Amino acid sequence: MKRALALYAVAAYAFLHAPLLILAAFSFNRSRYTVWTGFSLDWYRAAFRDHQLREGAWNSILIAVTATTISTAVGALFAYGLWKRRSRWLSASLYLSLITPEIVTGVSLLAFYQWIFQFWRLHLGMCTVVFAHVSFCIAYVVLVVAARLRGFDPGLEDAALDLGATEWGIFWHVVLPYLKPGILAAALLAFTVSIDDYVITSLVAGVDSQTLPMVIYAMARRGVNPVVNAVSSVIVFGLGAMILISERLRAS
Amino acid sequence: MNRVRAIALTPGAAVIVVLFLIPLAITCAYSALTRGAYFGLGPPWTADNYRRLADPLYGMVFLRSFALAAASTAICCLLGFPLAVFIARSGRRKNLYLHLVILPFWTSQLVRIYAWMFLLRETGLANGILQALGIIRAPLPLLYNDGAVLLGLVYAHLPFMVLPLYAALERLDPNLLEASADLGARPWTTLSRVMLPLAAPGIRAGAVLVFVPCLGAFLVPDLLGGGKSIMIGTVIQNQFTTARDWPFGAAMSLVVMVIVLVLLWVGAGRRGEDLL
Amino acid sequence: MQPVLELRGVTKDYSAHRAVDDVSFTVQRGAFFSLLGPSGCGKTTTLRLIAGFERASSGEILLNGRIINDAPPYCRNVSTVFQNYALFPHLTVRGNIEFGLRRKGVRDMAGRVNAAIDLVRLAGKESRKPSELSGGEKQRVALARSLVLSPDVLLLDEPLSALDPNLRLEMRAELKSLQQKVGITFLFVTHDREEALSLSDQLAVMNRGRIEQVGAPRELYLTPRTRFVAGFLGSINWIDGVGVRPEAIRLTRTAPQNDVRRRRARVESAVFLGNRLQVRSRTGAGELIVAEASHSEELRPGETVHLWWTAADELVLPPEPQ
Amino acid sequence: MQPVLELRGVTKDYSAHRAVDDVSFTVQRGAFFSLLGPSGCGKTTTLRLIAGFERASSGEILLNGRIINDAPPYCRNVSTVFQNYALFPHLTVRGNIEFGLRRKGVRDMAGRVNAAIDLVRLAGKESRKPSELSGGEKQRVALARSLVLSPDVLLLDEPLSALDPNLRLEMRAELKSLQQKVGITFLFVTHDREEALSLSDQLAVMNRGRIEQVGAPRELYLTPRTRFVAGFLGSINWIDGVGVRPEAIRLTRTAPQNDVRRRRARVESAVFLGNRLQVRSRTGAGELIVAEASHSEELRPGETVHLWWTAADELVLPPEPQ
Amino acid sequence: GGNRARRLNVFNWSEYVAPETISNFEREFRVRVRYATYESAEEMLAKASTGNSGWDVVFPSNSYIQPMASAGLLARLDHKRLPNLAELEPFFQSPPWDASLSWSVPYMHSSTGIVYDASVSPPPVGWRDFLSERFRGRVTMLDDPNEVIGACLKQLGYSLNSCDPAQLAQARNLALEQKRHLRAYLNAEVREQLVAGDVLMAQLWATTAQIGIDARPSLTYVYPIEGFALYADCAVILRESDRVELAHEFINYLLRPQVSARIAAAMRTATPSAGARRLLPPSLRNNPTLYPPPETLARGEWFTALPPAGQRLRDRIWTEIKTA
Ligand SMILES: Nc1ncnc2c1ncn2[C@@H]1O[C@H](COP(=O)(O)OP(=O)(O)OP(=O)(O)O)[C@@H](O)[C@H]1O
Ligand SMILES: Nc1ncnc2c1ncn2[C@@H]1O[C@H](COP(=O)(O)OP(=O)(O)OP(=O)(O)O)[C@@H](O)[C@H]1O
Ligand SMILES: [Mg+2]
Ligand SMILES: [Mg+2]
Questions:
Q1: What is the pLDDT of residue D24?
Q2: Atom 8 in ligand 1: which residue has the minimum CA distance?
Q3: DSSP of D3-51, one letter per residue?
Q4: Span from the CA of D135 to the centroid of ligand 1 (angstroms)
Q5: Residues D148, D110 contacting (CB under 8 angstroms)
Q6: What was the pLDDT predicted at C321?
Q7: pLDDT below 50 — which residues of chain A?
Q8: pLDDT greater than 60 at residue E198
Q9: How far apart are CA D207 and CA D213, in angstroms?
Q10: Are strands C17-27 and B34-35 parallel, antiparallel or unpaired?
């Protein structure tokens, strides 16, 4: 059983990572096409020279980190609140926000922003993108955290209360440690949907907040080139290395 | 008790009200307006957009999308469950393995799909390997069919199943698994009779997180499916882009949202569970 | 003196089922009060009502003279040792024991925590997680976690059930000395008769959600008000409608003198219980009588013996209403 | 006859710590074998090794003569009553009890399940979820869940610890009659000496991961090989290096005859234990001696009494190596 | 403040300027240009139509000019500030969509034609070849309703921009017939597969095709004999812009022959500037893909903005084609 599971996991990871390896491989291809013609670092050079890509990547990461942090904090609290007592209205709204087609979210948010901007002299920008991302990430966070909360033993809450913990003390010292894996999973999901979002972002981004997906999708209009592969590889392997190091540090 | 709940709910509720419910109201208004001459929209108010939805064409698109999304969800669940079990049981390495699941998805979806196109096309890697190994003579048509769409949808959404499942499985009391084995259950039975029911909240969350985005997917059917079929998400998207018929798009999405919400509600309610 | 804890007609209904039914009793400050009763009779529920995890369906609970029906658990200076331990799985033994002190903002807690760890004999295992402890060790962590707080009232739900007899004796002694030194009030649920009888100042016997009798141990054992109480605090033979405890029955091979109650009976089994033999024998009329004998006695099944007791040993009680 | 279960030099190491150390014993088919020992001595770990949840670090475990070190739990026809119950929270009482039968593909299980439910006195609570049960009720579900399977060997980890004495007696009787009727082999962990002594055919005393002695109850109680075993199976006074059990010490106000061992002592306390008094008294030399007396005796602290016993009551054992 | 005036926000299609175009402008005019790219005209339009997008100069296609102008989104151009307009080809000095160039300046233009691999013979000549059995399963059309329906209309001899229900119904039937021969509907992605040899023939934009042809010379671009679509992307200034002057300078800079030629050479686009074209190397200047001869060009038709009813009908037809 254990062995079979491990074998399966290897296959599953191969499935998940195959495209990643391919795009990484072609980032070293001399040709712009997916026909191997020789090794070169040109695309990396081009990527580092490309101001737009660099800025897009930086914006993407900045937005994703901010939106993930906010939506994870808000979403985890929200899930806890709903766990204490259900609220049909709030959970229905939350589900609705998940079901809403991206384009509709984007268009209506854009309209909403414009309506607000009438009252203050504001512009689309990083903030509007972050808010939009928070609004759609939050449902992912709540769902994942709520799924984990379902298994929480209320007896532990009783025990903490009994030992003099206040309600917040319980949340902080008992519930949160228990939720940690769920929160990690939720944050990873939020980060993923945020960093990869194109439709909504493209509608609410301002002049200073073009993200990497926006650059890439715009490129796709005329056919992408391996510069994108190079940037993607740098981001993934960079973040991957960071994770690996932080895991190592935590383990030791 | 209630004060904490109120404080815990407030930020989230604010986000939902301001960033979702108000825009939703705007969408509702849009759905009852008339499209402008070339783009945009305006008065008069009309129910015409809803009437046009009665067209069976859109019903068919919806059913097709629904079937594809349901199939992807089921496959994601089948593929994701053992992986989630594996991660949940790998002790100190579990965070690492968890990150490994999500890592490929920090690239743009577009780029990943291009990689799949390279893998699956006639002169692609999969056919190349199969031909080199002499397993096949002529290349297989792996791309531009429903199989490829399904593959793409499953690939794109697998983490959305694995992560909630992991969150639910990680807490599973190993004692219960031991008790099950002790009572004569083989691993497979333990999986289906003990782990599965206890991971149900995770499965539900995962199913929603896979199903809903699948319904609205447009890149995968366009690129891996070769654009030869259309999903409801693309039809809606088209209304806001090429067709520039925002009111109709708004009406269509509202109807789809209501249908999906009702389905979820009924699905959850039948088992006597709340949505969350 | 004002009682530290008082229950007045407290009732708790679960959906279909009344778990605690019109329970009233008072616990004096510094007392060791035990709650006994069959499994499922509502002991844990009573403790949960006092601790504030459940709301009483009716009745009043008073702590230090104040009605606390609606007070949240952290406003009640009581602490519970849970029947199922409820240890925090993410904290070590030390972390669990420190938990309550930290919440109170106690500074120099190392000393108190170490004392508690020593008291429950867990030195050397401070940094283990609950999942790496044996059942009895977990139970001792739960005990230490509450003891270290020195609350007004300590609610103990079978706190020694998973301990071996010697350790249990030690713990009993520690609890008793804490009661006498620190003046903590104990509300103690146990299934161990000896424990209840030897530790308690007051003792209540519950049955089906109701209190059957409250009193001092000796009083309840020697003058129970109902057959249920009599039977619950120790084994008893019901012979011709009167109760005789096994230890009151003497067993001889020769017939006894005339001025005693007696039966002739055949030994059915003699079970070795360590410090004594438990002898089950049947009279000619078919009555089963359980008696005790020294284990040095050699009794063989089938042997005929004389069982006798004095009138003073008899308990006369009305039969239970069904 | 081939033993149903045999352990040969089984050792289990946790990371830093040896929980089971070179344990060997054999259990005959149909026997009632008890495992006793202080909290944390490795009893649960031993059962877990036999059930297959842990892999032995060394040694062999044989079931029906076959080495099963590597067999997965579901291939071993043994069943465990877990110390922490491990009930399936998503199943009702009935669902939990049916679980094993379903796995075996038993068809008409309603009868067997109902019998098991009746046996553990849970009729009427079949459709409750574990979260709606009291501690003792949960324990009985765990017991029924395993009993209903009639496995070769039943591993019981303190299966009656949360039950009240009367129910415990009933359950003991049920277990014993199952053993005798159905021929199940029991491997029984308990902290209740009486339970172990009265139920067991064989009894093993563990300490710090090692088996100290194996034998029949009477043998272990009356002729223990080590001071640890002597002290573990019952209270004992160590007087001048020999052991005397409290029940062997007689207590009189007048001096005894000459041919006995004796002490004069002052009563320190007389604790009421129901069927007897536990009397702690101190000799002039400062020795503490615990004796037992009938509860009809009126003993006041400070009173001087004579304690005496016969040479036959003495246990002569070498002191423990430290 | 003053800092703000020296800043310009430009929103353009991807790969539409040479690497040094923007930086040269920045250096020469001492401004900071915020340059971003969009994926679709709708993306740009959605933002521009808010009137508060922050962009100064954007590049809509020719068919969007009139609608945007009538919606009041565009600033009227000041020709005095655009002396380089004179460099434009005569046709683009007065294009059908904006005869006096009041709102827009043509920036680059292109067409939709057929790319095929020279290995096929005889070579395809028009849209009708998409129905030919010899290509079955190895051809693709663009994934765009106007292009697909437009090609079918052309094959049927109708206008690209027809909104006549009967004509559209015919076009739909043709498209449905055509779909059976297609491997897929793909946009720029098909270039990859043309180069790799998976696809033999595809409907594609000239500029996109040219890059593929550079990589695989056996690819050829042909202007279908039944007629084809033409489009031009134009530079406009948004009405909301408060940097109109600078915007004019930018557009004028783009119109410089040297600049425009650099862009056309680097990005393989077709410049509407006669002056620029003269500066191109001959291989590009006379490239038949990018600059077809006038008699070929005469078969082309420019996309125009469609009225709501026609647009709606086309969308339904498109959905129908996709669902089939
Ligand atoms: N959440 C619940 N819902 C319904 N019934 C419950 C619930 N919790 C307990 N009960 C029932 O209430 C009764 C009293 O339970 P309680 O836990 O107080 O018993 P107890 O006296 O502590 O028993 P034990 O000695 O077995 O622990 C039991 O019959 C139990 O089945
Ligand atoms: N997972 C583990 N990791 C490390 N040590 C463990 C683990 N499980 C148990 N132990 C230790 O092994 C020893 C034996 O544990 P075991 O559970 O067998 O004791 P036990 O005899 O059943 O005790 P009790 O009567 O208290 O249940 C204990 O000291 C315990 O702390
Ligand atoms: Mg209880
Ligand atoms: Mg144990």
A1: 94
A2: D132
A3: -SEEEEEEEEEETTEEEEEEEEEEE-TT-EEEEE--TTSSHHHHHHHHH
A4: 7
A5: no
A6: 65
A7: none
A8: yes
A9: 10
A10: unpaired
**Average pLDDT by consecutive 10-residue portion of chain B (276 residues)?**
80 90 91 83 86 90 92 95 91 87 90 90 87 86 90 94 91 87 86 88 90 89 89 88 88 92 77 55
Unique residue bearing structure tokens 């994934």:
E143
Domain edges within chain D: 5-227, 235-313
Mean per-residue pLDDT of chain E = 90
Q: Fold identical between D5-227 and D235-313?
A: no
CA distance B247 to C131: 59
In this structure, what are the phi and psi dihedrals at residue C185, rounded to the nearest 5 degrees?
A: -90, 130
Give me A187's structure tokens.
């944050």
What φ, ψ does residue E46 adopt, rounded to 5°? -55, -40
Helix, coil or strand: residue E273: strand
Rounded Cα–Cα distance for residues C46 and C32 (Å)? 16
* The pLDDT of residue E1: 37
Residue type, A40: S
| Predicted confidence (pLDDT) at residue E59 exceeds the cutoff of 80 | yes
- Report which DSSP code applies to B45: P
Distance in Å, alpha carbon of B154 to nearest chain D alpha carbon: 30
Q: Cα–Cα distance between B249 and B245 in angstroms, integer?
A: 6
* Helix (H/G/I), strand (E/B), else coil: E231: strand
Residue identifier of the C-alpha nearest atom 22 of ligand 2 = D44
User: Residue B227 in 3-state DSSP?
Assistant: coil
Confidence of residue E127 (pLDDT cuts 50, 70, 90): very high
Give all strands of the β-sheet with C288-293 in edge-to-edge order. Answer: C250-252, C304-309, C261-272, C277-283, C288-293
What is the distance of C-alpha A140 from the center of its chain?
10
Pairing state between β E139-141 and E182-185: parallel
Contact (CB, 8 A) for D319 and D309: no
**Dihedral of the CA atoms C91, C93, C94, C100 (nearest 10)?**
70
Residues 6 or more apart whose Cβ sits within 8 Å of residue C68: C52, C61, C62, C75, C76
Place of tokens 């359980």: C290
Q: What are phi and psi of C5, to 5 degrees?
A: -140, 140
The pLDDT tens digits for A234-250 are: 988 998 898 888 888 87
Q: Are C137 and D45 in contact (CB under 8 A)?
A: no
Cα–Cα distance list, E31 to A46, A55, B188 (Å): 24, 18, 68
Which residue of B177, B178, B180, B182 to mutate against D (max D Cβ within 10 Å)?
Answer: B182
C-alpha–C-alpha distance, residues A196 and A186, integer Å: 15
**CA B121 to CA B140: how far, in whole Å?**
9
Radius of gyration of chain A (CA): 22
What's the pLDDT at D311? 83
CATH top-level class for C235-313?
mainly beta
The C-alpha atoms of residue E208 and residue E228 are separated, in whole angstroms, by 16
D242-266 pLDDT, tens digit per residue, is 888 888 888 888 887 777 788 888 9
Distance separating alpha carbons of residues D127 and D137, to the nearest angstrom: 13
Integer angstrom CA distances of residue B198 from A155, B77, B163, B265, E178: 18, 15, 16, 20, 52
**Which stretches of chain D drop beneath a pLDDT of 70?**
1, 321-322
Given 3.30.60.50, 3.40.50.300, 3.40.50.450, 3.40.50.850, which CATH number is that of D5-227?
3.40.50.300
- Residue A14's CB: how many other CB atoms inside 10 A? 10
Of D39, D81, D169, D277, which to mutate for an interface test with C (greatest number of C Cβ within 10 Å)? D39
| Residue B82: its H or E element | helix B56-88
Q: Is D42 in the pocket of ligand 2 (CB under 6 A)?
A: yes
Half-sphere exposure of A114 toward its Cβ, with a 13 Å CA cutoff? Answer: 19
- What pLDDT digit, counting tens, does each position of C113-148 carry? 999 999 999 999 999 999 999 999 999 999 999 999
Pocket test residue of D12, D13, D44, D161 for ligand 2, highest count of atoms within 8 A of CB: D44
